[in-house]
Amino acid sequence: MRISILKLSFLSFLFLASIGLSQAQSFKANVEHSHVIVEGTSNIHDWEIEVEDLVSQLQLVNANQDELSVQSIVFKVPVKSMKSGKGGMDKNTYKALDADDYKFINFKSTSIQKSAGTYVAVGNLTIAGTTKKVEIPFEISKTNNQIKLSSTYKINMLDYNIDPPKALFGTITTGENVTVMTNLTYNN
User: Fold this and answer.
1) Nearest CA-CA partner of 130 in 95, 169, 157
2) Phi then psi for 64, rounded to 5 degrees?
3) Is the confidence at residue 10, as pLDDT, over 50?
4) Which domain of life is it from (predicted)?
C-alpha cells in the first residue's frame, strides 16, 4: 500500500509539473513595432544609430495572467542592420565592431530576477567576439495579445575590446560609453 501511495504521489507530481511546463509561452519580437537605438557622444556632437533588424524571443510562464513571469530572453542583432543615415558613420561603426568577422550582437539570459516589480535579465552579452556577463534591468507590460519590453542600458565599448570609432584622421572621436534604448513588442 505504501508503494502505491508513493507511485500515486510521484505520478501526481509529474502531472502537475507537466501542466506548469505547458503554461510557458514563447513570444517573438515584431520587428516593425520594435525599436532599438544606440546613443553616443563625440568631441563634436552627440549621435545615434538605429537597429533596423533584430530577432528576439521571450519565454513567459502564465502569460495569460495579469502578473507576467519572465522565464528567458534571447536577443540577436545583425551588426550591419545598424543605420545612422550617414554612410561614413555606418562604415566606421561596422569597422569598430569588426562586423565582417562578428556579424551579430547577441544576448541570452541565464536567469531573470524580479524584485518589487523590477525585472533584471542576467545573462551573456556578446559584442565583437567578446562575451561579458551582464545584468540588464527592464520593464514589461501586457496589452491585449502584445507584450511590451523596454530597457535602457549603458555599455562601455572598452569592456568589449572595441576602440571607439574615429573619423577624419582621428580629429573626430567618439566617447567610449553608449546607451542602448530598447523598446520591443512581442506577439505569440
Assistant:
1) 157
2) -85, -5
3) no
4) Bacteria
Residues 6 or more apart from 124 whose CB is under 8 A from it?
A: 106, 107, 108, 110, 131, 132, 133, 134
- Residue 174 to residue 187: CA distance in whole angstroms: 36
DSSP state at residue 32: G
The 10s digit of each residue's pLDDT in 139-169 is 999 887 899 999 999 999 999 999 887 666 6
> Position 92: which residue type?
N
Which CATH code is given to the segment(s) 24-187? 2.40.128.110
Residue 142: φ, ψ to 5° = -125, 130
Amino acid at 65: Q
Question: What is the pTM for the complete model shown?
Answer: 0.81
When pLDDT is cut at 50, 70 and 90, the band that residue 175 belongs to is confident
Length of the chain: 188
Phi/psi of residue 86, each to 5°? -125, 110
Is 21 strand, coil or helix?
A: helix
Contact 46, 69 (CB under 8 A): no
CA distances from 1 to 7, 12, 13, 50, 177 (A): 10, 16, 18, 66, 67
Place of cell 501526481: 12
**Strand pairing of 35-40 and 24-29?**
unpaired
Quick one: cell of 62?
A: 502564465
